[in-house]
Design goal:
Blueprint: H1 7-22, H2 25-32, H3 36-50, E1 55-56, E2 63-64, H4 66-89, E3 99-104, H5 116-126, E4 131-136, H6 139-147, E5 153-157, E6 165-180, H7 195-200, E7 202-206, E8 222-226, H8 229-237, E9 241-246, H9 247-255, E10 259-261, H10 264-267, E11 269-278, H11 285-304
Helix pairs in contact: 1-2, 1-3, 5-11
Length: 305
Amino acid sequence: MLGNLSDIDLRMLRVFCAIVDAGGFTAAQASLNTSLSRLSVVVRDLEERLGCSLCRRGNSGFQLTEEGQELFDLAQLLFGDIERFRTQANRLGGMARESLQIGTVDSLISFERAPLPLAIRLFRQRLPEVRLNLHMLRPDELERAVLEERLHLAIGAFHHQLSGLNYQPLFEEEQNLYCSAGHPLFHRAEADLSLADICAAEYVGRGYLTENQRPHGLHFTQTVSAYAMEAIATLIFSGTYLGYLPTHYAAHWVERNQLRALLPERLAYRSAFHCITRQGQVPKAALAGFLDALDAAHRQLANKA
């Protein structure tokens, strides 16, 4: 039984809701960036606190118990009330302006087709009284923050689609596999490069992707992980690792002959970017206004392409 509702209780409830939204423990690993064992411990602790079983796992898949479904529905009401409280509290003491929490991934500023800067300008022209807060997070963190209503919307390349979120397509971004001038493969003639040579090199991957999501199914002998484009670029520039970077982000260094794309005709790929919002959230004028501005910016930039 829950006594006083603590921050720990709220965190456990958010994890439980994220598991339900994802459709199970395994699917929730990526969005919550944690292990199956840790998720199991959180749900077990929550069940012990409540004194009832919340879900079942087995050959038939993930299923909520009657108590689990009721708790999930109650938690949605609770988190909605918290958001409404936050909005009302911000109006006290002269803080009457509505705020909008926006999230994005890093390293998009050099991509001319990315609509966020123009969308912000259009939005500010239409609704200058709304306070904007911009957060830069990993794709899995963005999804979790939107599900937990800490962000109203987010833009990123998401490698799976979670239940509970709306995904609106925006644009595609080209990615290439790079090495730096200090790497042994940098001066190798392309005709002499093979996939075996490339996969024998050490590789820096994106820590929020599983191995089966690696581009072209490449399997490297040695890998390390990083969670931001600048971190990946730093490791590539060490001359030790290969890694994927957005083509627009790497272009400056390619022009200076500091980076080289390896077998681009074969190993390049395109990431699909989406704008995500939470399903079922109460629409606000600010959110609707920003989505309109984002759509207008996207169409304007697409017409220029």
